[in-house]
């Protein structure tokens, strides 16, 4: 399942390896999500309290990120709005390329589910820069059928 707003890997979240310890969390989908969507956490002040007992699965709410400045992980399963979804924050995933990806370089996303090289600070202000998704483990060019292996930095 893909949408016009997310052009991620059509096969979903394809993990190659996760370092032996999956780093995932469960969240409530704020919208319909497909496995492989890049997601960000959304919510309001006071979503959690100071005690571990105040935390529940629905406290974290995620959406398919359409802002290159935010990123928390990759959805691992399809989920309807208000359903639970598993989000990976670490591991190496096959990700569709939106621009040149250089092996060993940090990568960001283009707000549409694809990755490209992160170019670093673009201003001398305190504005939020584009999020770093991970580090490229392979090199690729831009194109609808080009993929790179990206290790998430979580």
Written as H for each helix and E for each strand, in order along the chain, the element string is EEEEEEEEEEE
Counting DSSP H or I runs of 4 or more residues, the number of helices is 0
Largest sheet: 6 strands, antiparallel
The fraction of residues in strands falls at: 25-35%
Structural class: mainly beta
Q: Give the tally of β-strands.
A: 11
Give the SSE map.
Elements: E1 15-17, E2 24-29, E3 38-42, E4 61-64, E5 73-75, E6 84-88, E7 91-96, E8 106-109, E9 115-117, E10 134-136, E11 147-152
Parallel strand pairs: 2-4
Antiparallel strand pairs: 1-7, 2-6, 3-4, 3-5, 5-6, 7-11, 8-9, 8-10, 10-11
Which key phrases capture this entry?
11 strands, mainly beta, 0% helix, 154 residues, five-stranded mixed beta barrel, globular
What do you see in this structure?
The structure is a single chain. 0% of the residues lie in helices and 31% in strands. The protein has 154 residues and is mainly β. It has no helices and 11 strands. The chain is globular, with a radius of gyration of 15 Å. The two termini are 25 Å apart. Strands 1-7-11-10-8-9 form a 6-stranded antiparallel β-sheet, with no helix packed on it. It has one domain.
């Amino acid at each position: 399942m893909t949408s016009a707003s997310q052009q991620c890997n059509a096969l979903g979240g394809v993990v190659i390896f996760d370092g032996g310890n999956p780093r995932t969390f469960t969240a409530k989908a704020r919208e319909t999500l497909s496995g492989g969507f890049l997601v960000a956490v959304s919510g309001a002040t006071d979503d959690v309290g100071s005690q571990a007992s105040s935390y529940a699965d629905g406290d974290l709410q995620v959406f398919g990120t359409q802002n290159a400045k935010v990123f928390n992980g990759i959805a691992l399963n399809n989920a309807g709005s208000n359903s639970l979804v598993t989000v990976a924050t670490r591991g190496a995933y096959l990700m569709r390329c939106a621009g040149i990806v250089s092996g060993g370089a940090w990568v960001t996303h283009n707000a549409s589910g694809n990755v490209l090289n992160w170019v670093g600070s673009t201003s001398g202000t305190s504005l939020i820069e584009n999020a770093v998704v991970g580090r490229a483990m392979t090199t690729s060019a831009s194109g609808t059928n080009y993929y790179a292996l990206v290790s998430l930095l979580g």
